[in-house]
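Structure tokens please, single chain.
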Amino acid sequence: MITKSQLKIKRGFDLLVVIVVLPFLFIPIWVLVCIASIDTKRFGIYSQYRIGQHGKPFKIYKIRTLRDGNHQLGHLNDYASNVGKFLRKTKLNELPQLFNVLIGDMSLVGPRPDLQGFADELKGEDRIILKVKPGITGPATLKYKHEERVLERQKDPIRYNRTIIWVDKVKINKKYVENYSFYLDLTLILKSTLNK
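Here you go.
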């Protein structure tokens, strides 16, 4: 199981990486924000409350990809522009989460941060997942990198997400925390980079 010293090393590594890469990515991120602002006719940064470490809510930042509409789980791409679909497919819309890592809300690797009603309702041994900060990538993220496509094929995407995908993600994320190592994080970062 992940220890306090491992959590400190993990945080130090996150800060080091973000401080090194953000100066190179700041201008590209700003360009994408401007493009998204023109494309969606709204400010190109989107924020939403998610559940973080120890069950505490925080604001996550993304590049806006959706037009106005009654967005439904499993049909989000129906509201995305062509630019938005590209950003979602390539995960470039998640680049602003580097700022979440910088300020300490997130980690480079960990369980993906969920909306209220999921991680904050974990019980018993499953709450071990909340020991770590949510991540930009992680083992469950890699397995479900095409999650939106899977949900689009379901008659009841909300129920399928809660009863099938979420249950599996909990198992995967528990295993990640229970078997944590710095080498595991490096491996997951490498896999995420190669699987773009």
